[in-house]
Amino acid sequence: MEAGEGVSSATPTEEMNGAGNLMDFLDEPFPDVGTYEDFHTIDWLREKSRDTDRHRKITSKSKESMWELIKSLLDAWSGWVVMLLIGLLSGTLAGVIDLAVDWMTDLKEGVCLSAFWYSHEQCCWTSNETTFDDRDKCPQWQKWAELMTGNAEGAGAYVLNYFLYILWALLFSFLAVSLVRVFAPYACGSGIPEIKTILSGFIIRGYLGKWTLLIKTVTLVLVVSSGLSLGKEGPLVHVACCCANLFCSLFSKYSKNEGKRREVLSAAAAAGVSVAFGAPIGGVLFSLEEVSYYFPLKTLWRSFFAALVAAFTLRSINPFGNSRLVLFYVEYHTPWYMAELVPFILLGVFGGLWGTLFIRANIAWCRRRKTTQLGKYPVLEVIAVTGITAVLAYPNPYTRRSTSELISELFNDCGALESSQLCDYINNPNMSRPVDDIPDRPAGPGVYSALWQLALALVFKIVITIFTFGMKIPSGLFIPSMAVGAIAGRIVGIAVEQMAYHHHDWIIFKNWCRPGADCVTPGLYAMVGAAACLGGVTRMTVSLVVIMFELTGGLEYIVPLMAAAVTSKWVADAFGKESIYESHIQLNGYPYLNVRDEFTHRTLATDVMRPRRNDPPLAVLTQDTTTVEDVETLIKDTDYNGFPVVVSRESERLIGFVQRRDLTLAIKNARQKQDGVVSSSVVYFTEDAPQLPASNPQPLKLRRILNLSPFTVTDHTPMETVVDIFRKLGLRQCLVTRSGRLLGIITKKDVLRHMAQMMNQDPDSIMFN
Amino acid sequence: MEAGEGVSSATPTEEMNGAGNLMDFLDEPFPDVGTYEDFHTIDWLREKSRDTDRHRKITSKSKESMWELIKSLLDAWSGWVVMLLIGLLSGTLAGVIDLAVDWMTDLKEGVCLSAFWYSHEQCCWTSNETTFDDRDKCPQWQKWAELMTGNAEGAGAYVLNYFLYILWALLFSFLAVSLVRVFAPYACGSGIPEIKTILSGFIIRGYLGKWTLLIKTVTLVLVVSSGLSLGKEGPLVHVACCCANLFCSLFSKYSKNEGKRREVLSAAAAAGVSVAFGAPIGGVLFSLEEVSYYFPLKTLWRSFFAALVAAFTLRSINPFGNSRLVLFYVEYHTPWYMAELVPFILLGVFGGLWGTLFIRANIAWCRRRKTTQLGKYPVLEVIAVTGITAVLAYPNPYTRRSTSELISELFNDCGALESSQLCDYINNPNMSRPVDDIPDRPAGPGVYSALWQLALALVFKIVITIFTFGMKIPSGLFIPSMAVGAIAGRIVGIAVEQMAYHHHDWIIFKNWCRPGADCVTPGLYAMVGAAACLGGVTRMTVSLVVIMFELTGGLEYIVPLMAAAVTSKWVADAFGKESIYESHIQLNGYPYLNVRDEFTHRTLATDVMRPRRNDPPLAVLTQDTTTVEDVETLIKDTDYNGFPVVVSRESERLIGFVQRRDLTLAIKNARQKQDGVVSSSVVYFTEDAPQLPASNPQPLKLRRILNLSPFTVTDHTPMETVVDIFRKLGLRQCLVTRSGRLLGIITKKDVLRHMAQMMNQDPDSIMFN
Q: InterPro entries in the record, alphabetically (chains A, B) (predicted)?
């Protein structure tokens, strides 16, 4: 037996204290122990055990007095309170953004004379002179040319309006990019890749800060109003997470524990999607499927609560003026037929191809931006893209208006009251049918010209979105993707409809398309196309279908949506597994351990651990022979985040792991406050001080910062298991042993580098500390 | 350095083979290696790594020939095929069950003369003589008394009908309980507790077998038709899982891997709920929230697919005859008002109290059944309960009909065409309003008598359900719980409505309840009450609200449902954390490691591991000194499921872990097939055979069954971390070391016993091997 090699045999009471180790040192006067530095990754197990300690402390205290009991109840309820606050604030912000965007988008075209803060629609709704037929035209609303020259028609007025449209757009986007650059560089982009990374356990200080929140909200309004091809849905998730971070700081339960904070952030992501689309259930599933890393059941309930509160806050603000919760409310009156699955699946294929094209082209362009001169002039780039967008968008009525209005029109079924060009069908006067059941009719000239304009709009949107996403302004991808899909879908829908009308004797149309009956709904095709394109870019499936289901509110159309979403995912996956968010994570080198990647290589822990063959030996501390000076030298010479502690260098038997940050703080603290601790003092991690000659300086006991339960695997463990353990337990590092002897260490960075290497990517691209 | 203590330093190639260890021995001729015995628990990590091996093998083979490529594609698609099959079969079975139940429930009262296989509704629908007003009465449908005596009215006919009703009920339930006893004892109960346990990694052979499927389907029809206070929703989950298990056996990918099989079962649970309620999204969330243990994203998509296919199969069978997917389709026309939240929350409190009462009383009764003579007469018990149910149920029209019809009526809003007693309001002739907007009116005598009958039905349902759930027949809990809640809710709803009508000048009603306007929907109260009661019993939250949302199809009513569900959960949780399913798991002693239980005690791994103080030392094998005889003695003398392998007994350095089952099979196999292996042969686990005198018999190499990467924790690891690791990685056992020396072992059973001990429960109640 090699007993007594240094580890004192502990009595039961002592053992119990062992578990409380962490708590003891949290009570210590020196601050910041147990926190993380910027751009570091958190240790989920440690965070969880810290929270359990805190919880235990509160529970035991709560028996002492009434006041402590109330405090413990408040603590237990604080989770729900935070959710309520997040829901209220993110719902309010979403409402304010919607209202402001409405007003500013219309400001590019004209102004309301009766009250300049009214949008076009509000202006004409409040006017008494509007007739029901012509809601869009009222004397109070004047285009700029009309206001300035008194002349509403003619080429001159058109050019003036055109010019002012471009000017406003440039002004908005210039303001936005300047604000982002000066005040909050983190406010740019959609934020979802970064939030995914943060939720997986990475620290990016300031990314969810107050300034980011403020600037992102303001600039989001500006960029959306400027008419750029981007949406506000992704950034709303970022905004909601910023709100969550803000409220976390009110409760020490969340502000001091990075693990608990991430639970709140997951719920906030759900609230963000909930207000973006008015789809609370879809929001929760989006958070679960797309964003979150660690999603316990408790978070599921809380997310749902936050998503609901947010949705109802938004509804009481009522920015769309129709008491509807959802962004695109649609109601269809015709069922779909089995044969229609063919065009639906074709739309799915289109969506998948669009997803692949977009991801490849966008990533290539963003890489170019990062590596060439282009990246140095973000303001100029934004101005140029805005200018091009505005110049090209104005002449086409389908690109001039805001993208969400466009999608809304494309989704809509042609009712009897619809005045849109898309509904310009040739009426058959000898039929009188109820209002909500319009039979199929031949397309009129309006429809044909609309088709041309839509085709041009499609090409324009596809190209410009590739260059827009990734600029240094807040930009979401949901709306442009959906627009591309909706345009393609509507075109296909009208084509099928006209084919069915003109060839209703064809065998496939015979059963369901008798003349005079309603059989094809082009709006449904637009919706299916939108789902397919969104799916191709983001690779969402269930959450996508549920969001769409919440928009239509009927189970009827789940099958077409599902067919398109799944086809689109399969097609896109065939060309590359990564969604746009994951591609951007990779491009930026964030240390994100993807849950979906299956690790199938046959490597072992020993192939990945450091030190490698020919490397210098592992930097370790011994339990009772290292001096303070040795430790300080080790800290200075290396940049490892922690050091294993062994019984002795000869036996290499592992007893624990100590964090660099804690070690630095502890020694600094001891040197300041503890008399007799000098450079030659021995540092010891055992229970009892080692037997030293009397002449030696006072030793320094550091057992309290020692993690006595470091995670170990054997050198023969397959890497797939190691990856699984890192994912599921959220480890920061893991020690490798062989028959009880310490051989090396695997950090999360090593795992990520190894995975990158196995996928033939550059392992050094990963940003990490 | 203590190098060379036996572990040969492996070359890189060898290391690679290490990972393939498992694969090598799977290729071995002796079968059953890597499988589990009945009532054992699976090792998730091992299953996962086996699947990865299988996958790697197929991928590498697929490059060899076209045929192998096709095979690999088929393999990749088999998951979706299984889902499709599960959806089709479970949808079909659910449809058949619905049709059969409809017919047999009506058979208790009478028969269709034109075709005896028609249910009452079908009989009168096909009849031409029915008027629109009186759909329920048609000459073809005759009650038994009318048929037998020609006399439809009078006391004699009533008694005869009453008598025959009881007789049929007794016949059905006797048949059911006999079938269950004789052919498939596992077909009893709701099955959800067992499925939860199976999904968490336990093996119960036959629980999901073909016989169970067949008998459960048949007896489910019988017991539901017999009028007992039970539902078919829970058992449908079991039926769907049986289907899944059936189809798993078609694909070796699933039949040979217990981990993969559980992924399919999770999806099947979703399909089961999907067909039970017609709520596919709710089904997926139910599986996620309530049933599943390991639910990767891939399973989410597949569950959704299976749930959709099942729902659409059911819809095409169209058992309810109304093209509706959902069990209770409701449409309300009035919004709800803020003040109504007070009665909704009161219903939530009622639901929580009902949940607590039911769980406590039912568990007490089931415990009594287990421990007393009562359990020995299951047939008699079923007969007695059926008799009592039938005798008490017949006189009350609300308990005589099937429970789902009752719920449906309670949920319904009183339209103009409603002939129900519950809608017997006094009409105000001077008002003429459109059909779907009936204003509040004073209640007529019919409503008052209905209220009395409902109150009696409520008491009856509460009492009888406690005694029904847990008998040796298939029995679900959803429908009875919902019925209790719906009755209570409707009573409260009518009370509020009448109060609002008669006191519309009260300050709280003033704003929303003007006379002549419609302000309170009693049906909505019934729905909220049903959700609250179901929530109190099952502790579902999100899935419950989503199921209810899918029933109504409107986001409007989510807030009332949510308020009631959350209140009910809070109230019920205050009295005890366990849901009815978890209570039954505990009662039966299944080894289920609950994901929701927070382990907050400050114990360490060293307190839980075996051997305890004063126990004999841990049974270990040495790497190259144990003989075949030693191993056989060890296997005979102990009943452990596996043995750690150490370098030597002195150093106690761990090198691996070997499963008892594999060891037995390997030695048996070697003795039969390998010449020279005798009792005194040395068993070695190293790469190279130990140096032995020439006179010794041939040694036996067993490295291929050695798990070289056993999971270890240190003795100082807090138990909360250990519990977390067991949960997240699905371990079967974990070895405990201190500074590299093996100290003991913790199995899943030890963890469960320790948790039971900490919660002051009997640790020996856990059934386990």
A: CBS_dom, CBS_dom_sf, Cl-channel_core, Cl_channel-4, ClC
Report the range of poorest mean pLDDT among A382-386, B65-69, B128-132, B261-265: B128-132
Q: Is B542 on the interface with A (CB under 8 A)?
A: yes
For residue A387, the one-letter residue type is G
Handedness of CA B673, B677, B678, B681 (dihedral sign): negative
**Residue B19: CB partners within 8 Å, gap ≥ 6?**
A602, A603, A604, A716, A718
Across the range B544-569, mean pLDDT stands at 82
Q: How far is A459 from chain B (nearest CA, A)?
A: 32
Indicate yes or no: CB of A56 within 8 angstroms of CB of B717: no
Q: Please say if the pLDDT value at position A768 is more than 70.
A: no
Mean pLDDT over the full length of chain B: 84
Say whether pLDDT at B440 is over 90: no
Tokens 């189809």 label which residue? B247
Tell me the CA distances in angstroms from A544 to A299, A352, A536, B694, one per residue in order.
20, 14, 11, 71
B598: nearest CA partner in chain A:
A52
CB contact A594 to B (< 8 Å): no
Does B304 contact A545 at a Cβ distance shorter than 8 Å? Answer: yes
Express each pLDDT in B94-130 by its tens digit: 999 999 998 999 898 888 888 888 888 777 776 665 4
| B18 in Cβ contact with A604 (< 8 Å) | yes
Please give the pLDDT value at position B24. 41
Please report residues of A whose CB lies closer than 8 A to that of B605. 709
CATH of range B338-426+438-587; options 1.10.10.10, 3.90.220.20, 1.10.3080.10, 3.90.650.10: 1.10.3080.10
Choose the most confident range, by mean pLDDT, from B270-279, B295-304, B541-550: B270-279
Query: What is the amino acid identity at position B505?
Result: D
Show residues of chain B in contact with A45, CB under 8 Å: 721, 724
Q: Which of residues 315-334 of A touch B (CB under 8 A)?
A: 325
- The fold of A84-317 is Clc chloride channel (1.10.3080)
Residues in chain A closer than 8 A to B607 (CB atoms): 12, 15
Half-sphere exposure of B456 (CA within 13 A, CB side): 14
Number of other CB atoms surrounding residue A87 within 10 Å: 29
Encoded tokens for A640: 């490892």
What are A470-493's pLDDT values in tens digits?
Answer: 899 999 999 999 999 999 999 999
Chain A residue closest in CA terms to B315: A556
B84-317 and B338-426+438-587: identical CATH topology: yes
Taking the C-alpha atoms of residue A501 and residue A514, their distance in angstroms, rounded to an integer, is: 8
Select the residue of A52, A603, A739 nearest B647 (Cβ to Cβ).
A739
Query: Taking CB atoms and an 8 Å limit, are B542 and A606 in contact across chains?
Result: no
Contacts of A165 (CB under 8 A, 6+ apart): A108, A109, A227, A390, A394, A400
Ranges of each domain in chain B: 84-317, 338-426+438-587, 605-765
pLDDT in tens, A606-640: 989 988 888 888 888 988 888 888 898 988 888 88
What number is the ipTM of this complex? Answer: 0.83
How far apart are the C-alpha atoms of A278 and A292, rounded to whole Å? 20
Instruction: Give me the torsion for CA of A86, A89, A94, A99, rounded to 10°.
Output: 170
Which of A162, A102, A110, A642 lies closest to A320 in space, CA to CA? Answer: A102
Residues B553, A558: C-beta atoms closer than 8 Å: no
Just give the CATH number of A346-588: 1.10.3080.10
**CATH classification for the domain delimited by B605-765, as one of 3.20.20.70, 3.10.580.20, 3.30.365.10, 3.90.380.10:** 3.10.580.20
Instruction: Reduce the secondary structure of B284-327 to three states and give it as a string.
Output: HHHHHHHHCCCCCHHHHHHHHHHHHHHHHHHHHHCCCCCCCCCC
